[in-house]
Amino acid sequence: MASATSGTVSTRYAGRRIERVEDTRLLTGRGTFVDDITRPGMLHACFVRSPFARATITGIDTAAALALPGVRAVFTAADLNPDVKEAWHAVAGKDMPDTPRPPLAEGEVKFVGDPVALVIAESRYVAEDAADLVDVGYDPLPAIADFRDALTSDIAVHAAYPDNNAGGLAGAPPDEDTFASAAHVVKEHIYQQMYVPVPIETRGMVVEWAASTGELTIWASTQTPHELRAFGARLLGIPAQHVRVIMRDTGGGFGQKVVPMREDMCIMLAARKVPSPLKWIEDRRENLMSAGQSRHVDGDVRMAFDDDGTILAADIDFIQDVGSYPTPYPVLTTAAIGMFFPGPYRVPKASFNYKTVFSNTAGLHAYRGPWQYETLTREILLDVAARKMGLDPVELRRRNLLRRDEMPYFNPNGMPYDHVAPIETFEQAVKILDHEGFRKEQAEALAQGRYLGLGFSAYIEPTGAATGHLATEGCTIRMEPTGKINVYVNGGSTGNSLETTVIQLTADALGADITDVATIQGDTAVTPYGAGTQGSRSAPMTAGAVNEAGTILRKQLVAMAAARLGVEEAEIELAGSRAVARGDTEKAVTFADLAYRAYYEPQQLPPGMSATLEATARFTAPPTAPIHWANATHACTCEVDLDTGRVHITRYIVSEDVGPMINPNVVEGQIAGGTVQGIGGALLEQLSYDEAGNPLSSTFVDYLLPTATEVPLIEYGHVEIPGPGVGGYKGAGEGGAIGSTPAVINAINDALAPLGVTLTTLPASPAAIVAALERSEGKDH
């Protein structure tokens, strides 16, 4: 065990499969979600939304709605929008140029579902009835439904952006000489469809304005309670200390709930204009129609190889759909697609170029690994390249994946990889799979007329990226008079089990029994500032914050115990919620005894010794190690039915390195959740619009989600290379969703390779597979 005063963290609990402390509450239906919040006299909000993708608003008649019994108010842009003071998000900063984002549509609607008016009533039922009575005059206009047409269109989504280019970036220009002289050059055009996070709990908030004190209380479904608090204060122009955000249970976020969106702005603005607390709960149709879109990217990728299959150069040129009113987060992360495109491979030269493009659809929002297109395109391209060179995709990757002894390694775009060994997760996945055994099985199946396929996907991702407000995290640890311990962190837990992992870390930091530790999260009135759950930052940042506060409190406990037992501080060890003199177990004092003296008999402490048993500290990531690089390899096997186009996934393996695991159950749960989302993106999910910009998948009848039928048992392998931070922990939140889609697509393409079929347009739905097979048959004849 580490010395109690050494500042290191012991690991009695970290690394163990501790049962999640929140499960009993959630599984017995005792969770508290936003819709469970009821306040005296609470009113309900419902949005009036545009039925047109683009139209001029010629007038809004609210008389009929206001006449309906139970309706308290109807607000339009003229009522709410002028009250906005500031509307910037911390993820971008106050000085970063931003795209337009009015709370309610002003003058022109930009997509079907654009909020035009806000109805306030005594119940949601009345509010919805009243919304139907609001008479909005529209003069329909031509719309851009397909972002691929936007850059050359005469239609401008926003007048300030006449070419519909929301911004872009280019790296170093392609080395065309290398591409011209290389032994092998492989090119593909790859389109990824629009799909979305669909959290089990939609967006929502309850906002209560106390006019007498000028205080605002918000109960929210959010990943970032402190950012919502700061944003609300800026939005309304009131002191931040007058805003309190309370986040209890949140049923999934996946990036969609990182930053406040336009509806959130409306509810906060409207709350000051009504006499009672105001609740808005988004329904599923609204969520699919208006909460935003993700992934939608179209581009060209190419790689150059020498005779041996060694990568010489890589290039990606793409456009990303940002819809009409994007949130700033994913627009910023679009650059990461280009920067990360070389991936976990030894790539000497790389280039990228991209544009983000407006369209008359819902705005782009973050979704678990918003830069995922770089892995999708690179991994599909590598499999195509391997087939063209007559190599197994396993062998091609082996020749190019980075090794541990090459670290630190700078990719050609300047990304500083370290504390990773991508080849090791790859080889582990290959071993778990039994690659040679599968190839034999595949050949035997093909002889019988069955089409089996194997797909790999390797990636590397930055976690805990410590830039701006993401670079610091706070923690308070308080020992109560009973000796029990509460740890206070910002939270933002949306299924990623911060409730459990932070308790494990705190118990280890203090040498406490885990049953003596509890946590309080998600209440800005009592928790230190934190940036919430985004960018796979929670593990490394909360570990750092708990360690900072725990070191301070541990030092105080050691001093108190040494004085009580009459030994030197260096003799004290903390374990099992007790302080024990090293070598003399008879000399011991419990945390309960120390706390009793500190709170009730402080005069018994030595002169000058503080009675404080509480510590607050902030962890700031060092500039020398701002990124914790995680990596993984996904392997998928499948069988494709040529008649129906159905894909049956037979095995799924993930070998990952997220450093030492605080709780393997939590890590594997994160991988599983992301993997299922990626499988959905590969096979089923698609947020579609027709040529006029009308959404075609606004219910679960049309927007298909993966079920237990489509998802096999996931097998896990773990490689543990410690990261540069406290405990060596790396983030684990996004990798499953990044690596899974290309692994599935590669498995399908491998199965169909004997027929000359390669799918590069997603999703690989049954209809798409059958159509591709028919096209291939047509070419053969």
UniProtKB/TrEMBL annotation:
Pfam families assigned to the protein according to its UniProt record, in alphabetical order: Ald_Xan_dh_C, MoCoBD_1, MoCoBD_2
Cofactor: Mo-molybdopterin cytosine dinucleotide
One GO MF term: oxidoreductase activity
Coiled coil: none
InterPro entries documented for this protein: Ald_Oxase/Xan_DH_a/b (IPR000674), Ald_Oxase/Xan_DH_a/b_sf (IPR036856), Ald_Oxase/xanthine_DH-like (IPR016208), AldOxase/xan_DH_MoCoBD1 (IPR008274), AldOxase/xan_DH_MoCoBD2 (IPR046867), AldOxase/xan_DH_Mopterin-bd_sf (IPR037165)
Aldehyde oxidase/xanthine dehydrogenase a/b hammerhead domain mapped to chain residues: 28-142
SUPFAM superfamilies in the cross-refs: CO dehydrogenase molybdoprotein N-domain-like, Molybdenum cofactor-binding domain
UniProt KW keywords: Molybdenum, Oxidoreductase
Alphabetical list of SMART domains matching this protein: Ald_Xan_dh_C (SM01008)
Protein name: Xanthine dehydrogenase
